Amino acid sequence: MKPRLINNLLWKVLSVLAAIVLWLIVVNIDDAVTSTKIRNVKVNMLNMEALTSKGQMCRVEEDTDVVDITVYARRSVLSKLSASDFVATADMQKNLRYDSMVKIEVAYVGSMSSSSIQKMETSRTNVIVNIEESVTEQFKVSVETEGYPSSGLVKGSAIPEQTLVEITGPVSVVKRISKVLAKVNITGITGTQVRICKLQLLDSDGDEIDGTYLEYIGKDTDFEVTVTTLNKKLVGISFDISKAAPEGHGLVAVSYKPETVTIAGVKSEISAIYNLNIPPEALNPNRETGRIEQTVDISKYLPEGIIIPEEDEQEIVVTMDIQPLVTNIYSFQPGKIQYLNIQEGLAIDGESIVPLEIPISALAQNLSVFVMDNVTISVDLSECRRAGSYTVPVNIRVSDEYSVPKELTMEVKLVKEMDETEAEE
């Protein structure tokens, strides 16, 4: 009986062991160790301030701070994993190598035991970095607008909250910045309004620069631009042509297009403006002659606070014909001359007076219709206080189409005026 009991116990133990082995085989087949790939995990850069204290900055090469993680574990574990269960880091202080690579470390931070993860592999082992000098520079903020104000109005001023912005970052990125742009939409605005935008950094080709590694006001916050609107008015244009021709020449003809322009300003300021008067220095500054075509920027001569809203209306093409003056000499008889301020007791010696020859210059077309009677000639004798001969300046008044010498003189002889007794003798 006893040997039979021992035999049965042995078989029972063997049966239990066989069941355990069979269970292990089944478990390993149904819940085997396999792998899954967690894609596009962002690598967090740690201790970047270690470079800042040295006046340096780190710029990560594009796409080198993203990894795929291959995780090895049982199927039951893998089925419960997500990307948020893993953290990838690169420590600039601890794992920087060769000043260009930072080792990537991956950790499981999920709710299951870390021992349930048998192994992890990454698609790359290092983040590639460029360590550069950190620089700070100031840039002017340019404002551009899109859209149009309400009907009858035009854009006036567009003033950014800061005219200069200070940008800090890697020298290679900062040096690429050609323009800092604040672009706002002004569709339908009236009066004065504040518009919100984000600053754009542009290179010399007009392409936007990635500002990831740059620090400046307006990067992550709203940037304000104050925009005003103005009233419009159509006015005429007049040029002062008095100095258009150089010395020795005259202006035969002048024309310009357009003859009107639309200005804009505060209603109370533009209401009294009917004509834009362009000063003489605007025409022919190079003192040319012959047929001349000159483009004049009339926006330079606007009253303060007034603008020409359309850029293509700010310049006027002026055509001038400038020709040499012709000079003729005219002889004026003594009776044509007015002698002013003769001192009491003195008189002009009539026998010494001769005709006065005066050169008069003008364009040929004007000289052909010149009338001598339209010329006024006078001499001032107030400084001639006693009898004798004097050389005195001649004052000649002639219409603007004609010119005469500025320093013309004549000889005048004064004698004592005879009383009636002396005259009878």
Report the structural category.
Answer: mainly beta
Q: How much of the residues is beta strand, in percent?
A: over 45%
Separation of the first and last Cα atoms: 203 Å
Largest sheet: 11 strands, mixed
Strand segment tally: 26
Percent helix among the residues? 10-25%
Evaluate the radius of gyration.
48 Å
Low-confidence stretches: none
> How many helices does DSSP assign?
7
The backbone outline, from C-alpha atoms, is rod-shaped
Mean model confidence by pLDDT: 87
Characteristic key phrases:
11-stranded mixed beta sheet, single chain, mainly beta, 425 residues, 47% strand, 5-stranded mixed beta sheet
Question: Describe it for me?
Answer:
It is a single chain. This protein has 425 residues and is mainly beta. The protein contains 7 helices and 26 strands. Strands 1, 2, 3, 4, 5, 6, 7, 8, 10, 11 and 13 form an 11-stranded mixed sheet that branches. The chain starts with a helix and ends with a helix. The model has no long low-confidence stretch (mean pLDDT 87).
Give the SSE map:
Layout: H1 2-30, E1 33-46, H2 49-52, E2 56-60, E3 66-74, H3 75-78, E4 86-91, E5 96-97, E6 101-108, E7 119-122, E8 126-146, E9 153-160, E10 164-170, H4 171-174, E11 179-185, E12 192-197, E13 200-202, E14 223-239, E15 249-257, E16 260-265, H5 267-270, E17 275-278, E18 290-297, E19 315-324, E20 326-332, E21 337-340, E22 346-348, E23 356-362, H6 364-367, E24 376-380, E25 388-397, E26 409-416, H7 420-424
Parallel strand pairs: 1-4, 8-11, 14-17, 21-24
Antiparallel strand pairs: 1-3, 2-8, 3-7, 4-6, 5-6, 6-8, 8-10, 9-14, 11-13, 12-14, 14-16, 15-19, 18-19, 20-23, 22-26, 24-25, 25-26
